[in-house]
Amino acid sequence: MSLRVAQFIYRWRLYLSGAIVIGALILAPRAQIQVIDNDLTAWFSPDDPVYQDYVRFRDEFGGTRTVIVAIEAPSRERLFSEQGFAFLDKVSGDIERVQAVLRVSSLATATVVDVLPSSGVNDDGGLQVRRLIEDLETKSPGAVGQRAMDDELFRGDLISEDGTVTALILFFDEARIDDVRAEVLTEIRRLVDAQLPTGFKAHYNGSLEITEWYNRVTLANQTTFTPPILALTLLALFVMFRSVKKTLLTFGAILVSLLWTLGLYDLFGFSYNVLSSMIIPLVVVLAVADDVHILQHYGLERRTRSREQAFVGTVRHLMAPLFGASATTALGMLSLATSQVVAVREFGMGAAIGVMVDFAISIILVPTMLGWVKEERVAAPQESWFLGPLRSVAMFSTRHARAVMAVVIGLVVLAGVGMSRLRVDTNHINFFSERHELYTSAQVMDKKLAGIYTFQVFLEGAPESMQQPDILKRMDRLSTELKALPFVRKVTSVADYVKRVHRELNDGRQEAFVIPETSSEVAQELLVFGLGDEGRAELERMAASDFSRAQVTVKLASMSSDLVFVQVTEADRLAQQIFAGSGVKATVTGSGRLFSMLDHYLVRSQITSFATAFVTVFGVIFLVFRSWRFGLLSIAPNLVPVLAVFGVMGWLGISLNVATVMVASVALGVVDDDTIHFISRYRRETAAGATTDEAIETATTQEGRAALTTAVINCCAFAVLTLSEYRPSAWFGGLLALTMVMAFLAEVFILPAMIKLFPALFGAERVHAQGVGRA
Amino acid sequence: MARQVQDRDTGNDGRSTMRMRLFDRQGRVRERVLSTLSLKGGPGRPVPGDRSLTRFTYPNDINGTGFLVWENPAGEDERFLYLPSLGRVRRIAGNETQDSFVGSDFTYEDIGGREFNDYTYALLDENGTWTSPDGTSHPAFRLESRAKAAGARFPRVVSLVRKDNFVVVHGEIHNRRDELQKTFSVKKLDRVSGIWTVMEMAMSDTTARTRTELVVEKIEYNVGLKEADFSRRELERGAGR
């Protein structure tokens, strides 16, 4: 069967290769990664209940995504100076003129409500609703600053406790901002930086800023690291094979694979994001692995046989293992298509397509191009360097199988302990180096202001329900309970506004800082609060116009997603408990809940993917080799490297997060390739009459050599990623290198040792008796 | 022409009942009913600036809540608030003409007219046309008003002014980015006691995605209101009527 397929490919090789190259050229324009989409819809499916909660909330109150500009002054006196207030006033006005900016909340736009003293017998006094900075006409800047610090609604949000940092919180038109985000954020920076008084510093953060940084990083990773990865791959290929033509043709094949994969990815309408950027390294790694096998096998065949014979022989012998290796990887990736996370789903489908396309290119294009290369008589360095040591490794593995397995068990235990330390955690801020401005700005906002992360408790009930005293008191109780949670910096609800107005209408008496007893009082006081534009805007953000819905906003310090998840879960428990029997439905939502849930989805995806991949590897090996025993044999060498990678992550404190979670998928893709090649070769050799030891030696020296060559090439190339200022990229580079090494070690140590330890299952005699492996 | 808009006859005083419908971004509507008294001020009149007393009569939870505004051409307006639940009149300081009128999409100046001296004007089109909701066309001026105050929330308004009666029948109100944010439109215009009166009007805000409709259910002009009808005591006393 494989002989006929090999002969068919040889006969049509030029047409098939031509079609592959023309296809790559046609798809090339689509392989441009310029538009990066790390928005919510890149991660959440529209029918996801958590996302639907958020959409329901967003439709009511607008988006929760903001940009926070923290202005840090050298001293409180400098901030509360004429110059400081003038800057805030000017820059707030300028930013409000930037497109898609809906509102700027700052000390310059803040409204204060004060009690007016009685001016005579017929005057009961009054209320003064005005912009805070209007006080500058009659008071000193220091006094105005103190007034701001005394206001519980501003303290933490707009001004730090020590009065040295103030915030401009920018709200945007959700319908427009994603289309113009990059230019709007650039314009805001330009406006602020250009007018910043000497000695002042501006720090930028907030959910929109983080999203934008993700886009920048994704793009930077593509543009900065792809060229050196490809260049180092080229160099390593040359060093391994010492042949310009072989290096160039392999490199060409890798590029063709990339063009096909990225082109098809775009053609299917998938978007590029921080996750899908991992497809490039995945395709490069697997393409190098496949092509090295072809190069090596073809080279050996060509020494004694004609071009046609070498072509057909190479394709015939590598068709099954390459197909098996690619199919297992592709099916493992395809299992991600069931993920709840859109980005994971698209990555899975895109990667599966890429892997199979790469298989076709490796089996058709590479041997076709090799036919045009004059075979060198001198052994390639990867042969002369690795053959001897690998022979010794084979000898060691077969003679000390028990010792090898004992070490493996020890390593598994060690990895297990490391895995117990592994945390599922995405801390978007900690992904950046401590020198990165996103990191330093988060530090300032966490220490001085109310933090940058938020979640909301969305309350839904009958019209007017949110201005009933009973419901407002429940809101107030929920706020109090939430404020007691660790990491919660600030909680705001419509109850705060009601209490505030009630106090001011009652001569500012602190004992009147309570929810009034009748709904009429509440309705009238809220009407008063909503008379001014600022008050009206605030009220619209906190409650629906018919008071059928309201929100409680919770601000958190920047922290890891598992901690956010704990806070969100606790908030949900409290909300359900407090609103039980009230007729009001409480739902915890907002970006904090979205991103903490995302982590759980990712882990679930990964577990599903692993489970599917392991079953698939077993299944494909069973199908390819028609042997359940060799299917079982593949489990340990596949599992151990993955466990080792997770173990190392646990020991090094690298969390399983939005970026590193894909390392495991890539790891499995690489590891199962090596296993399949080894088992295939072992079975072929034993079927041809070799003893167990002879077959292990050949498989180790030939397939192990290809695996080692691949590992060296890819380690050289991807080590460059460790230079990334974006930590997940650096981790990805390092962990990928570790995976390659572990996969190689598993192949040359674990497989031979297991074969030797269970001769009744895997020994040459058993294979002969079964009469299999002659494919 | 802008001066003629300002000076057109709107009566010396008036008494009206209005129904306000506030639509939010989801299209949900809340109704409020207000009764308003107004007295024209100015040189030679009993009061220096316009006065108005607005009281909510519906819904019940805000029934009796009232606002009294004393416009002051020489300085800041004086505003007073009466909340039945509080039982006392409070002075409110700090509101501006471009602030929301009782929490609606209209501003005080949309309702009471723009202060002539606060704007500069340009006639954009002398031969414009306004088509009323009943389909009839009316010749109109297209007038641009630019606020003199640098910090104005709505610095530019382009209005259609009917040539025959100088009533502003349509307005395009631009925000600080010079984007069209609010649109004012007259739905019904009647002559009441010889005075052209906007009986139905609407204001939509494209940014906030809200809309307010205001329907005059009853209006009387020149009913003989006095300065005393706009006192703080009246604000308080009228709540029980």
Beta strand % of chain B: over 45%
By secondary-structure content and strand pairing, the structural class of chain B works out as: mainly beta
The main sheet of chain B comes to: 13 strands, antiparallel
Quaternary structure state of the chains depicted: heterodimer
Q: What's the Cα radius of gyration of chain A? A: 32 Å
Task: Tell me the structural class of chain A.
Answer: alpha+beta
Anisotropy-based shape of chain B: globular
Could you describe the largest sheet of chain A, including whether it forms a barrel? 4 strands, antiparallel
Q: Strand order of the main beta sheet of chain B, please?
A: 6-5-4-3-2-1-13-12-11-10-9-8-7
Q: Would you tell me the overall average pLDDT of chain A?
A: 87
Total count of strands of chain B: 13
Radius of gyration of chain B: 18 Å
Structure in words:
- The complex is a heterodimer of chains A (775) and B (241).
- Chain A is α+β, with helices and mostly antiparallel strands and 775 residues long.
- Chain A contains 28 helices and ten strands.
- Chain A has helices at 2-11, 13-27, 40-43, 49-61, 76-79, 82-96, 141-150, 174-195, 207-241, 244-267, 279-304, 307-334, 342-370, 381-399, 401-420, 437-448, 469-483, 494-505, 519-529, 533-542, 561-578, 591-625, 628-652, 661-687, 692-718, 727-757, 759-762, 764-770; strands at 66-72, 101-105, 111-116, 126-131, 165-172, 201-205, 453-460, 488-492, 549-556, 585-589.
- In chain A, the strands form three sheets. In chain A, strands 2-5-1-6 form a four-stranded antiparallel β-sheet, sandwiched between helices.
- The longest helix of chain A has 35 residues, at 207-241.
- The termini of chain A are close together.
- In chain B, strand 8 (137-147) and strand 9 form a beta hairpin.
- The longest helix of chain B is centred in the first third of the chain and has 6 residues, at 2-7.
- Chain B has 241 residues and is mainly β.
- Chain B has a 13-stranded antiparallel β-sheet.
- Chain B is 7% helix and 50% strand.
- Chain B is globular.
- The A-B interface holds A 59-60, 93, 96-99, 102, 116, 122-131, 134, 173, 505-506, 516, 518-521, 523-525, 527-528, 530-533, 536, 540, 544-546, 548 and B 22, 24-26, 28, 30, 56, 59-62, 65, 80-81, 83-86, 88-95, 99-100, 102-103, 151, 153, 176-177, 179, 207-208, 210, 232.
